Write the C-alpha coordinates for this entry.
Amino acid sequence: HEGFTYCFVRVNDVYFVTVSRINVMPLAMTEFMHRVNRVFQSYFKHVCEESVRDNFVIIYELLDEMMDFGYVQFTEEKILKEYNTQEGLIKLFEEDQLEVKALPSAVSGVGGAIPWRKPGIKYSKNEAFLDVVESVNLLVSQTGECLSSEIMGVLKMRTRLTGMPDVKLGLNDKVTLESHARNNGKPMKSVDLEDIKFHQCVKLNKFEADRTISFVPPDGDFELMTYRLTSKIKPLVMVHCDVIRHGTSRVEMNLKVQTTFKKSSTATFVDIHIPVPTDADKPSAKANSGGVKYVPENGTLLWSLKRVQGTKDYSCKCEYTLPSVRGSDPSATSKRPIAVKFEIAYFTASGFQVRYLNVTEKSNYQVLPWVRYVTQSGEYQIRTN
Protein backbone atom coordinates (compact mmCIF):
# COMPACT_ATOMS: atom_id res chain seq x y z
CA HIS A 1 0.00 0.00 0.00
CA GLU A 2 1.56 3.30 -1.18
CA GLY A 3 4.99 1.68 -1.47
CA PHE A 4 4.90 -0.03 1.95
CA THR A 5 4.61 -3.76 2.61
CA TYR A 6 2.59 -4.79 5.65
CA CYS A 7 2.59 -8.22 7.24
CA PHE A 8 0.81 -9.26 10.43
CA VAL A 9 0.29 -12.25 12.73
CA ARG A 10 -2.51 -12.47 15.28
CA VAL A 11 -1.90 -14.13 18.66
CA ASN A 12 -4.99 -14.16 20.89
CA ASP A 13 -6.08 -10.48 20.96
CA VAL A 14 -2.64 -9.07 20.01
CA TYR A 15 -1.52 -8.19 16.47
CA PHE A 16 2.18 -8.35 15.55
CA VAL A 17 2.76 -6.07 12.53
CA THR A 18 5.89 -5.50 10.43
CA VAL A 19 6.26 -2.71 7.87
CA SER A 20 8.87 -2.49 5.11
CA ARG A 21 9.72 0.09 2.47
CA ILE A 22 11.49 -2.45 0.25
CA ASN A 23 10.45 -5.71 -1.34
CA VAL A 24 11.24 -8.28 1.38
CA MET A 25 10.34 -11.93 1.67
CA PRO A 26 6.96 -12.22 3.49
CA LEU A 27 7.95 -15.55 5.06
CA ALA A 28 10.99 -13.90 6.67
CA MET A 29 8.75 -11.24 8.20
CA THR A 30 6.27 -13.85 9.39
CA GLU A 31 8.98 -16.03 10.91
CA PHE A 32 10.46 -13.05 12.76
CA MET A 33 7.05 -12.22 14.28
CA HIS A 34 6.59 -15.82 15.40
CA ARG A 35 10.02 -15.73 17.04
CA VAL A 36 9.16 -12.49 18.80
CA ASN A 37 6.02 -14.18 20.12
CA ARG A 38 8.04 -17.16 21.42
CA VAL A 39 10.46 -14.82 23.20
CA PHE A 40 7.56 -12.93 24.80
CA GLN A 41 6.05 -16.23 25.97
CA SER A 42 9.35 -17.20 27.60
CA TYR A 43 9.23 -13.96 29.64
CA PHE A 44 5.56 -13.65 30.59
CA LYS A 45 4.04 -17.00 29.54
CA HIS A 46 0.78 -15.81 27.95
CA VAL A 47 0.72 -13.14 25.24
CA CYS A 48 -2.46 -11.04 25.44
CA GLU A 49 -3.43 -7.39 25.69
CA GLU A 50 -3.16 -7.32 29.48
CA SER A 51 0.28 -8.97 29.60
CA VAL A 52 1.57 -6.60 26.90
CA ARG A 53 0.40 -3.59 28.92
CA ASP A 54 1.96 -4.97 32.11
CA ASN A 55 5.31 -5.74 30.47
CA PHE A 56 5.76 -2.89 27.97
CA VAL A 57 9.18 -1.93 29.44
CA ILE A 58 10.73 -5.35 28.89
CA ILE A 59 9.01 -5.57 25.48
CA TYR A 60 10.76 -2.38 24.36
CA GLU A 61 14.09 -3.74 25.61
CA LEU A 62 13.60 -7.05 23.81
CA LEU A 63 12.59 -5.46 20.51
CA ASP A 64 15.63 -3.18 20.71
CA GLU A 65 17.89 -6.25 20.97
CA MET A 66 16.03 -8.42 18.46
CA MET A 67 16.05 -5.92 15.59
CA ASP A 68 18.39 -3.02 14.86
CA PHE A 69 17.84 -0.60 11.94
CA GLY A 70 15.57 -3.15 10.29
CA TYR A 71 18.05 -6.03 10.58
CA VAL A 72 17.23 -9.08 12.69
CA GLN A 73 19.76 -9.59 15.50
CA PHE A 74 19.27 -12.10 18.34
CA THR A 75 16.10 -14.20 18.66
CA GLU A 76 17.24 -16.93 21.07
CA GLU A 77 15.37 -16.45 24.35
CA LYS A 78 18.07 -18.20 26.40
CA ILE A 79 20.73 -15.75 25.21
CA LEU A 80 18.44 -12.74 25.61
CA LYS A 81 17.70 -13.73 29.20
CA GLU A 82 21.40 -13.60 30.05
CA TYR A 83 21.64 -9.86 29.69
CA ASN A 84 18.18 -8.48 28.98
CA THR A 85 16.36 -8.21 32.30
CA GLN A 86 13.95 -5.71 33.80
CA GLU A 87 16.98 -3.83 35.21
CA GLY A 88 18.67 -3.61 31.81
CA LEU A 89 22.41 -3.64 31.18
CA ILE A 90 23.21 -0.65 33.45
CA LYS A 91 22.85 -0.73 37.23
CA LEU A 92 23.02 2.24 39.58
CA PHE A 93 25.26 1.95 42.67
CA GLU A 94 24.95 3.86 45.93
CA GLU A 95 27.85 6.11 44.89
CA ASP A 96 25.70 7.26 41.95
CA GLN A 97 28.18 5.66 39.61
CA LEU A 98 27.05 3.86 36.51
CA GLU A 99 28.63 0.54 35.65
CA VAL A 100 27.95 -1.19 32.36
CA LYS A 101 27.64 -4.95 32.55
CA ALA A 102 29.71 -6.90 30.06
CA LEU A 103 27.77 -8.58 27.30
CA PRO A 104 27.78 -12.38 27.33
CA SER A 105 30.43 -13.87 25.05
CA ALA A 106 27.71 -15.59 23.04
CA VAL A 107 26.60 -12.11 21.96
CA SER A 108 29.96 -10.35 21.71
CA GLY A 109 31.52 -13.26 19.77
CA VAL A 110 34.57 -13.50 22.06
CA GLY A 111 36.29 -16.87 21.66
CA GLY A 112 34.31 -17.79 18.55
CA ALA A 113 31.12 -18.38 20.52
CA ILE A 114 27.77 -18.97 18.84
CA PRO A 115 24.56 -17.06 19.62
CA TRP A 116 22.53 -20.01 20.94
CA ARG A 117 25.12 -21.52 23.30
CA LYS A 118 27.32 -19.86 25.90
CA PRO A 119 30.85 -21.18 26.57
CA GLY A 120 32.01 -22.77 29.80
CA ILE A 121 29.05 -25.13 30.33
CA LYS A 122 29.97 -28.11 32.52
CA TYR A 123 28.09 -31.24 33.57
CA SER A 124 29.26 -34.14 35.72
CA LYS A 125 27.10 -36.49 33.63
CA ASN A 126 26.77 -35.80 29.90
CA GLU A 127 23.48 -36.84 28.33
CA ALA A 128 21.51 -36.15 25.15
CA PHE A 129 17.79 -36.92 24.97
CA LEU A 130 15.88 -37.01 21.68
CA ASP A 131 12.10 -37.39 21.43
CA VAL A 132 10.50 -38.12 18.06
CA VAL A 133 6.84 -37.08 18.38
CA GLU A 134 4.40 -37.66 15.51
CA SER A 135 0.85 -36.30 15.44
CA VAL A 136 -1.62 -38.03 13.12
CA ASN A 137 -4.33 -35.91 11.47
CA LEU A 138 -6.99 -38.12 9.89
CA LEU A 139 -10.53 -37.90 8.50
CA VAL A 140 -12.41 -41.14 7.79
CA SER A 141 -15.76 -41.40 6.00
CA GLN A 142 -18.83 -43.36 7.11
CA THR A 143 -17.75 -46.26 4.89
CA GLY A 144 -14.26 -46.44 6.41
CA GLU A 145 -12.50 -44.68 3.52
CA CYS A 146 -9.61 -42.42 4.44
CA LEU A 147 -10.54 -38.98 3.07
CA SER A 148 -7.44 -37.15 4.23
CA SER A 149 -4.37 -38.01 6.28
CA GLU A 150 -1.29 -36.16 7.42
CA ILE A 151 1.55 -36.80 9.84
CA MET A 152 3.22 -33.85 11.58
CA GLY A 153 6.53 -34.74 13.21
CA VAL A 154 8.81 -32.88 15.58
CA LEU A 155 12.22 -33.79 17.03
CA LYS A 156 12.58 -32.42 20.55
CA MET A 157 15.95 -32.45 22.27
CA ARG A 158 17.23 -31.95 25.79
CA THR A 159 21.01 -31.68 26.04
CA ARG A 160 23.19 -31.69 29.11
CA LEU A 161 26.61 -31.57 27.51
CA THR A 162 29.90 -30.02 28.57
CA GLY A 163 31.78 -27.54 26.41
CA MET A 164 31.04 -27.05 22.72
CA PRO A 165 29.97 -30.49 21.44
CA ASP A 166 29.33 -31.37 17.81
CA VAL A 167 26.27 -33.60 17.36
CA LYS A 168 25.57 -35.64 14.24
CA LEU A 169 22.20 -37.21 13.59
CA GLY A 170 21.33 -39.76 10.89
CA LEU A 171 17.77 -40.47 9.74
CA ASN A 172 16.12 -42.99 7.45
CA ASP A 173 14.84 -40.36 5.04
CA LYS A 174 14.33 -41.46 1.44
CA VAL A 175 17.10 -39.39 -0.19
CA THR A 176 19.78 -40.62 2.22
CA LEU A 177 18.88 -44.30 2.02
CA GLU A 178 18.53 -44.30 -1.77
CA SER A 179 22.12 -43.06 -1.94
CA HIS A 180 23.14 -45.68 0.64
CA ALA A 181 21.48 -48.44 -1.44
CA ARG A 182 23.31 -47.35 -4.60
CA ASN A 183 26.64 -47.53 -2.79
CA ASN A 184 26.08 -50.73 -0.80
CA GLY A 185 23.35 -52.53 -2.71
CA LYS A 186 21.28 -53.00 0.46
CA PRO A 187 17.87 -51.30 0.34
CA MET A 188 16.50 -50.09 3.68
CA LYS A 189 13.08 -48.89 4.77
CA SER A 190 12.82 -45.13 4.31
CA VAL A 191 10.33 -42.27 4.67
CA ASP A 192 9.78 -39.38 2.29
CA LEU A 193 9.98 -36.28 4.49
CA GLU A 194 8.38 -33.01 3.35
CA ASP A 195 8.44 -29.41 4.60
CA ILE A 196 11.53 -29.97 6.73
CA LYS A 197 12.32 -27.08 9.07
CA PHE A 198 15.45 -26.94 11.24
CA HIS A 199 16.54 -25.04 14.32
CA GLN A 200 19.07 -22.34 13.40
CA CYS A 201 21.90 -24.38 14.98
CA VAL A 202 21.81 -26.95 12.15
CA LYS A 203 24.51 -26.56 9.48
CA LEU A 204 22.40 -26.38 6.33
CA ASN A 205 25.33 -26.66 3.91
CA LYS A 206 26.28 -29.98 5.52
CA PHE A 207 22.71 -31.26 5.25
CA GLU A 208 22.42 -30.24 1.59
CA ALA A 209 25.74 -31.94 0.79
CA ASP A 210 25.27 -35.37 2.38
CA ARG A 211 21.92 -35.19 4.29
CA THR A 212 23.76 -35.33 7.63
CA ILE A 213 22.20 -33.24 10.40
CA SER A 214 25.21 -31.69 12.13
CA PHE A 215 24.93 -29.00 14.82
CA VAL A 216 26.24 -27.50 18.04
CA PRO A 217 23.14 -27.75 20.26
CA PRO A 218 21.73 -25.11 22.60
CA ASP A 219 21.88 -26.04 26.27
CA GLY A 220 18.65 -27.50 27.63
CA ASP A 221 15.37 -28.01 25.75
CA PHE A 222 14.77 -27.03 22.12
CA GLU A 223 13.03 -28.20 18.93
CA LEU A 224 15.63 -29.49 16.51
CA MET A 225 13.45 -30.20 13.50
CA THR A 226 9.89 -30.45 12.22
CA TYR A 227 8.60 -32.35 9.18
CA ARG A 228 5.41 -33.45 7.46
CA LEU A 229 4.20 -36.50 5.51
CA THR A 230 1.10 -36.46 3.32
CA SER A 231 1.02 -40.06 2.08
CA LYS A 232 -2.14 -42.02 2.93
CA ILE A 233 -1.90 -44.13 6.06
CA LYS A 234 -4.08 -46.81 7.54
CA PRO A 235 -6.08 -45.59 10.57
CA LEU A 236 -4.29 -46.69 13.74
CA VAL A 237 -7.56 -46.70 15.67
CA MET A 238 -10.69 -47.46 13.64
CA VAL A 239 -14.21 -46.84 14.97
CA HIS A 240 -17.31 -48.38 13.34
CA CYS A 241 -20.60 -46.85 14.45
CA ASP A 242 -24.15 -47.93 13.65
CA VAL A 243 -27.02 -45.63 14.64
CA ILE A 244 -30.39 -47.35 15.11
CA ARG A 245 -33.65 -45.51 15.82
CA HIS A 246 -36.37 -47.20 17.86
CA GLY A 247 -39.66 -45.42 17.34
CA THR A 248 -39.59 -41.63 17.38
CA SER A 249 -37.52 -40.88 20.46
CA ARG A 250 -35.11 -43.66 21.47
CA VAL A 251 -31.75 -43.84 19.68
CA GLU A 252 -29.19 -46.63 19.98
CA MET A 253 -25.52 -46.46 18.91
CA ASN A 254 -23.36 -49.57 18.55
CA LEU A 255 -19.64 -48.90 18.38
CA LYS A 256 -16.78 -51.21 17.57
CA VAL A 257 -13.18 -50.09 18.01
CA GLN A 258 -10.26 -51.81 16.28
CA THR A 259 -6.59 -51.06 16.89
CA THR A 260 -4.60 -51.73 13.73
CA PHE A 261 -1.06 -50.95 14.90
CA LYS A 262 1.33 -53.83 15.56
CA LYS A 263 0.59 -56.23 18.40
CA SER A 264 3.88 -55.55 20.19
CA SER A 265 2.94 -51.88 20.67
CA THR A 266 0.67 -50.55 23.40
CA ALA A 267 -1.29 -47.31 23.51
CA THR A 268 -1.04 -45.55 26.85
CA PHE A 269 -4.65 -44.47 26.44
CA VAL A 270 -7.41 -44.28 23.83
CA ASP A 271 -10.27 -41.82 24.37
CA ILE A 272 -13.30 -41.94 22.07
CA HIS A 273 -15.48 -38.82 22.17
CA ILE A 274 -18.96 -39.89 21.01
CA PRO A 275 -21.13 -36.84 20.18
CA VAL A 276 -24.80 -36.82 21.22
CA PRO A 277 -27.46 -34.12 20.65
CA THR A 278 -27.36 -31.35 23.25
CA ASP A 279 -31.00 -31.99 24.19
CA ALA A 280 -30.55 -35.77 24.58
CA ASP A 281 -32.17 -37.15 27.72
CA LYS A 282 -30.35 -39.59 30.00
CA PRO A 283 -27.49 -40.73 27.73
CA SER A 284 -26.08 -44.04 28.94
CA ALA A 285 -23.51 -46.53 27.71
CA LYS A 286 -22.04 -49.93 28.49
CA ALA A 287 -18.65 -51.10 27.19
CA ASN A 288 -16.87 -54.45 27.37
CA SER A 289 -13.70 -52.64 28.45
CA GLY A 290 -12.84 -49.28 29.96
CA GLY A 291 -15.27 -46.73 31.36
CA VAL A 292 -17.86 -44.42 29.79
CA LYS A 293 -19.13 -41.14 31.23
CA TYR A 294 -21.37 -38.35 29.98
CA VAL A 295 -19.73 -34.94 29.51
CA PRO A 296 -22.69 -32.54 29.11
CA GLU A 297 -20.57 -29.39 28.62
CA ASN A 298 -19.08 -30.94 25.47
CA GLY A 299 -22.20 -32.84 24.40
CA THR A 300 -20.28 -36.13 24.27
CA LEU A 301 -20.01 -39.54 25.83
CA LEU A 302 -16.37 -40.16 26.73
CA TRP A 303 -15.21 -43.77 26.39
CA SER A 304 -11.79 -44.16 28.00
CA LEU A 305 -9.51 -47.17 27.45
CA LYS A 306 -6.18 -47.69 29.21
CA ARG A 307 -3.15 -49.75 28.12
CA VAL A 308 -4.60 -50.76 24.75
CA GLN A 309 -2.66 -53.34 22.75
CA GLY A 310 -2.49 -53.50 18.97
CA THR A 311 -4.81 -55.72 16.87
CA LYS A 312 -7.53 -55.71 19.56
CA ASP A 313 -11.32 -55.20 19.29
CA TYR A 314 -13.59 -53.44 21.77
CA SER A 315 -17.31 -52.69 21.72
CA CYS A 316 -19.69 -50.22 23.33
CA LYS A 317 -23.46 -49.73 23.26
CA CYS A 318 -24.91 -46.24 23.83
CA GLU A 319 -28.54 -45.16 24.26
CA TYR A 320 -30.35 -41.87 24.68
CA THR A 321 -33.82 -40.43 24.14
CA LEU A 322 -34.88 -37.29 22.32
CA PRO A 323 -37.74 -34.92 23.20
CA SER A 324 -40.95 -36.00 21.50
CA VAL A 325 -41.15 -32.68 19.70
CA ARG A 326 -37.93 -33.58 17.82
CA GLY A 327 -38.49 -37.29 17.58
CA SER A 328 -39.97 -37.13 14.08
CA ASP A 329 -37.19 -34.90 12.75
CA PRO A 330 -34.78 -37.00 10.61
CA SER A 331 -31.92 -34.58 11.32
CA ALA A 332 -32.29 -34.98 15.09
CA THR A 333 -29.56 -37.64 15.20
CA SER A 334 -27.18 -35.83 12.84
CA LYS A 335 -24.09 -34.89 14.79
CA ARG A 336 -20.41 -34.14 14.76
CA PRO A 337 -17.83 -36.77 13.80
CA ILE A 338 -16.42 -39.07 16.46
CA ALA A 339 -13.12 -37.70 17.76
CA VAL A 340 -10.35 -40.05 18.90
CA LYS A 341 -7.43 -39.21 21.18
CA PHE A 342 -4.56 -41.62 21.80
CA GLU A 343 -0.86 -41.93 22.51
CA ILE A 344 1.39 -44.84 21.52
CA ALA A 345 4.88 -45.04 22.98
CA TYR A 346 7.92 -46.54 21.18
CA PHE A 347 6.11 -46.34 17.82
CA THR A 348 6.04 -44.06 14.77
CA ALA A 349 3.15 -44.06 12.32
CA SER A 350 5.42 -43.10 9.41
CA GLY A 351 8.22 -45.58 10.10
CA PHE A 352 10.59 -42.70 10.92
CA GLN A 353 13.81 -43.90 12.60
CA VAL A 354 16.97 -42.36 13.99
CA ARG A 355 19.89 -44.34 12.56
CA TYR A 356 22.55 -42.83 14.82
CA LEU A 357 23.11 -40.02 17.32
CA ASN A 358 26.81 -39.23 17.79
CA VAL A 359 28.30 -36.60 20.08
CA THR A 360 31.95 -35.51 19.85
CA GLU A 361 33.82 -32.91 21.89
CA LYS A 362 37.51 -32.03 22.14
CA SER A 363 37.75 -33.38 25.71
CA ASN A 364 36.49 -36.75 24.38
CA TYR A 365 34.06 -37.47 27.23
CA GLN A 366 31.50 -40.28 27.23
CA VAL A 367 27.91 -39.39 26.34
CA LEU A 368 24.70 -41.28 27.06
CA PRO A 369 22.32 -40.74 24.09
CA TRP A 370 18.61 -41.56 24.56
CA VAL A 371 16.04 -41.78 21.75
CA ARG A 372 12.30 -42.16 22.34
CA TYR A 373 9.41 -42.43 19.86
CA VAL A 374 5.82 -41.32 20.50
CA THR A 375 2.81 -41.27 18.17
CA GLN A 376 -0.25 -39.30 19.21
CA SER A 377 -3.52 -38.15 17.72
CA GLY A 378 -3.96 -34.71 16.20
CA GLU A 379 -7.24 -33.86 14.44
CA TYR A 380 -8.41 -37.46 14.29
CA GLN A 381 -12.08 -37.71 13.26
CA ILE A 382 -14.38 -40.46 12.03
CA ARG A 383 -17.74 -39.71 10.46
CA THR A 384 -20.82 -41.76 11.36
CA ASN A 385 -23.95 -42.77 9.48
Notes: The chain has seven helices and 22 strands. Confidence is low (pLDDT under 50) at residues 87-100, 108-112. The first helix runs from residue 26 to 44. The longest strand covers residues 146-160.
